[in-house]
Amino acid sequence: MPRTLDGQITMEKTPSYFVTQEAPRRIHAMSPDTKLIVVVRNPVTRAISDYAQTLSKTPGLPSFRALAFRHGLGPVDTAWSAIRIGLYAQHLDNWLRYFPLSHFLFVSGERLVSDPAGEVGRVQDFLGLKRVVTDKHFYFNVTKGFPCLQKAQGSRRPRCLGKSKGRPHPRVSQAVVRRLQDFYRPFNRKFYQMTGQDFGWD
Quick one: which residues bind 3'-phosphoadenylyl sulfate (predicted)? Predict the structure, then answer.
């Protein structure tokens, strides 16, 4: 990490830290005062989105159902990373061995789409920043299906997430979705209790 001077905040992002077993210990050893922002979304939708991204890079992939369940519609296969990542309560348990809950901000991926300025406002508050990013900085990109940042002064175009974001999801049967909702429900409820936030996924 680059050195941070007084009055500066250094940020880094990666989706893999939250689910990597060794990450909390290593980050705590580097800087025990680190503030942690975790963006979460409905784990069923997240798993389907993960599959869509992998499918775009690996066209011959087995069906979502074949990967999500062992032996047809048998037990949910938590060895598959697309499923395992959504077990947020288990990952948070690991992090809470090193960092107090007060060091975390949990951002709703759904609200980041429906109310980006509100969620970004929470991030600014958590980091002790003035609320400078507001509604006027966002517009809804119909093609992508989510908000993008307005064009910054001196820039030729608005800032939107890359091509890999906003792609259509493959069709997954309601029976598969319901099985996964049932599977995740106890983990989601534990996560709500741990964070003190109800994300409304049930």
Answer: 41, 49, 165-169
Residue 160 lies in a domain: no
Convert the pLDDT of each residue in 67-88 to its tens digit: 999 987 789 999 999 999 999 9
What is the span of the domain harbouring residue 88?
17-133+173-195
Q: Would you say 56 is a known binding-site residue?
A: no
Secondary structure class of 116 (helix, strand, coil): helix
Provide the 10 A C-beta neighbour count for residue 141: 15
Domain count, the chain: 1
pLDDT at residue 163 in the model:
65
Nearest 5°: phi and psi at 82?
-60, -30
Full-model pTM: 0.89
User: Known binder of ligand: residue 111?
Assistant: no
